[in-house]
Amino acid sequence: MSQFDDRERAFETKYARDEEMQFRILARRNKLLGQWAAGKMGLTDAEAESYAKDVVRADFEEAGDEDVIRKVLGDLTAAGVECDEAAIREALEHKTVEARRQIIEQAN
């Protein structure tokens, strides 16, 4: 019975670690997306940092990426920046890869 318990604990530990890693990647991705959007809006460094944090917080409104996309698209449109949902989704994909790379490098 102890081997089964050990395997179960190992699986639970791996699952928790994987979930934490995914959360960190998504948070970093959203921050990078916020910095990208802030650059398009011409915000100062301090404003860009604050805006990136707002984008990270926006992800807690609902499951999935729609809340983040909606926020960034709305803010870019309000700032008079020509951008559509497809461009934001493309940036989101690029920022996901970049965030994953950063988190993995940071862990090593």
Q: Which key features would you list for this structure?
A:
mainly alpha, 108 residues, Major Prion Protein, 4 helices
> In percent, how helical is the residue content?
over 70%
The CATH topology annotation reads as Major Prion Protein
DSSP, total strands: 0
Into how many domains do the coordinates divide?
1
Radius of gyration: 17 Å
The helix-and-strand class reads mainly alpha
Could you give me the name of the CATH homologous superfamily? Domain of unknown function DUF1476
Backbone shape: elongated
Task: Report the β-strand fraction as a percent range.
Answer: under 5%
Mean pLDDT: 92
Tell me about the largest β-sheet: none
- Count of helical stretches: 4
Gap from first CA to last CA: 35 Å
List segments where confidence is low: pLDDT < 50 over at least 5 consecutive residues: none
CATH class: Mainly Alpha
Description:
The chain has one domain (2-107): Major Prion Protein (Orthogonal Bundle). Helix 1 packs across helix 2 (45-58), helix 1 packs parallel to helix 3 and helix 1 (2-41) crosses helix 4 (85-107). The model has no long low-confidence stretch (mean pLDDT 92). 83% of the residues lie in helices and 0% in strands. It is mostly helical and 108 residues long.
